[in-house]
Amino acid sequence: MVRRLFLFALASVALEILSLQVSYAQVQDTVQLTPVTISAPRYTRYVSGARVQRIDTLLLQRQPGITLSEVLQQRSPLYFKSYGNGMTATVAFRGTSSSHTAVLWNGFNIALPTLGMSDFALLPPPPNTQVSLQHGPSGALHGSGAVGGAVLLENPVSFAPQQQIQVQQEIGSFGHRRSAATGTFSNGRLALTSSFTRSASQNDFKFENIAAFGAPRETQQNAAFSQTSLAQEVHYKLGQAQRLSVRGWYVKTHRQIQPSMGSANTHAQQNDENLRLMAEWQGQVAGGSTTVRGAYFNDVLNYRDDGVLSLSTVNTYQSQVEHERQLLPNLLLQLGEEGQLFKANVGGYGGKVDETRFSTYSWLRYDPLPELQISLNLRQAWVQGFNPPLTPTLGANYIITEFAGNTFTAKANVSRSYRVPTLNDRFWRPGGNPGLQPESGWGYESGLAHVYKNGNVTGTSELTAYALQVKDWIQWQPSQAGPFSEPVNLQHVRGHGVEVDSRWQFAFDANWSLFGGVAYAYTISQQKLPNTQAILQERQLFYVPKHKVAGWFEARFKNWWLSTDATFTGRRFTDNDNNNWLPAYTLINASVGKTFTWHSFETQLMAQVQNLTNTVYQTMAYRAMPPRNFRLSLSLKWAPQP
Q1: What is the side-by-side strand order in the sheet with 149-154?
Q2: In what residue span(s) does the TonB-dependent receptor-like beta-barrel domain sit (predicted)?
Q3: Which of 157, 167, 494, 535 is the most exposed place for a label (fewest CB within 10 A)?
Q4: How far apart are alpha carbons 519 and 502 in whole angstroms?
Q5: What confidence tier does 146 reach under pLDDT thresholds 50, 70, 90?
Q6: Shortest CA distance to 374 belongs to which of 398, 396, 399?
Q7: How many domains does the chain have?
Q8: Dihedrals φ, ψ of 308, to 5°?
C-alpha cells in the first residue's frame, strides 16, 4: 500500500511539474538558465555522480568479429573468468558475480533469464557498436541484475549521406581464421547497416599439464569452436520529427568444451543460437520525445557429452514506452514503463515455465547552476511471485574549478539495486529453490574527474572510491539433502574499492600522434565465513582479484601504426576458504599495421602478436590458455565520396 501511494504521489508530482512549463513562460524574460543538453546517449543524461566509461571502438573496427570479452579485457579494469580460449567468459564487475552485471542492447536486457548472466564470448558486437560501462549499482536505470555495473551496447542512427563496403580476412596460429564483411548506406532518409563475421579456431596449442606428474607438455584436445554473427539495421525517417528503426542480431556458436587438466575427455560440446529482433518508433509528441520499443529474443543452449544431454530454449518478449520532456531549460524528465515475458522450455525443469515482469520508472535531470548537475531516478518493479524493492538513485556532478585548459569535477552517487532469482535458481531439478528472496543492495561512490584540453594535447582522468553491500546474495553450494547443489540466500556481502582511469592523446602534427590509457581497479569483495574454530572471518570472494590493471598505447606516423596493450591480474582465490589460489600474471599483445589508399579504396594490412611474453597463466583453475601466437589480417574498404 505504501508503494502504491508513493507511485501515485510520484505521478501527481510529475503532472504538476509538467504544468510548470506554462507558468515559466511568464518569467522567461527575467530568468536566464543553462539549457540541458539532450544530444548525449540515452542513459548518460541521467547518471550524474556515477562513473561511465566509453570504450574505444577502434578494436571493433580493426578486428570485426572480436568478442566483447576480448575488448573489455584489454580496455577496462574488469576481470573475466574464462574456461579457455573461445570458451565461456563471465565478468566480475566491482567484485560481484557474473549474474550481477546487466548487459543491454539498445535498451533491452539480453542476459539469459535461465542463468541471469551473459557469456561475453557469445557477444561479437557489430563494428558500429558503441560500448559503454556504467560502474556501480543502477537498478533505477537498468532494472534487475545491475548490481555491480552495466555494459551498454548502442547502435546509433546516422542519416548523413554515405555508402561504404569493407571486407576482411584474418588467419593465425592454432587454426585461427576470421572473415568479415560490413556495409552501410544512407541517403538522408533511409539508412542501412549490415555486418557479417565468421570466426573459428582449432585451439590445438601445446600446454603444460600441471595436474599430471612432471607437468608434461600436451596438445589441447576438444577445444575447437566456430562462431557466425549477422547483424542488420534499417532506419527510415517518416518525417522531420519521426523515425522508425528495425534491428536484428543473430549469433550461432558451436564449441567443443575444453576439459580441465586431469579430467577425462567426455567429448562435451555446446551449441548456442541467439536471435535478437527489435523495432523502435521515435517521434515528437505532447511537447517532448516519445519512444516505443518492442523486442523478441530466441535463445537456444544445447549441451551434450558422452553421458549427458541438456536442451534449453527461451523465448523472451519485451516492450518499452518512454516519454522525455524538457520542462525548463535546466530540467529534463523521462517517464517510462517496461514489460517482459519469459517462456522457457528447459529439460532440467521437468516442464515449461513462464514468468512476467513489469516496471515503471522516472528519471529526472536538473541543472540548478551552470556548474552543478543533479539526477534523481526511481524504478518500481513487479515480478511474478516476488516483490522487488523500490530502487532510487541520487547523484550529482559539481565543477570545482576551470583554469588553463583544466576542468576539475567532483562527483557523488548513491544507488539501490536488486536482482530477482533466475529461472534456474527456482526451477532446476534437483536443487531449485522457489523460496529464494530477491537480492537487494546499496552502492555509494564519490570521485574526482579531470579534463585537460590545451592545443594538441587532450586528456581525461578519473579517481573513484566506492562501497557496495548486498543483502540475500544468492549462491549455489552443496546440498545437505543429497549429492547435488542448491542456491541459498547468504546474509551479506560487502565490498569496497578504488578505480583509476586516465586517457591521453598527443597530436604533434598532421603525421605524428600518440594515444594511450591506463585503467586500474582495487577490489575488496568479502563475505563472513567460519574458520576452523567456528569464528566468522571476512573472506575474499573466489575469482575476484584485488588488483587488475589494463594499459594500452599506440603511435601513428602517416599511414603506419604500432600499438600494444598489457594487462596485469592479481592473485585470485579459487575457494570460499581462501586456501587455494591462482598466481598473478601479465599479458602483453602488440600489433603493427599500414594503410594504403587509392582513390575510393583503402587497404589495411595488420600483424598481431598475442601473449607476446609467452606467459603461462589460467583465468579458471586447471583450464589451459594459449601461449604466444600470431595473426595476420588484410582488409579492403570502398567508400566513394558523396
Answers
A1: 52-54, 130-135, 149-154, 101-105, 108-109
A2: 187-612
A3: 535
A4: 7
A5: very high
A6: 396
A7: 1
A8: -135, 140
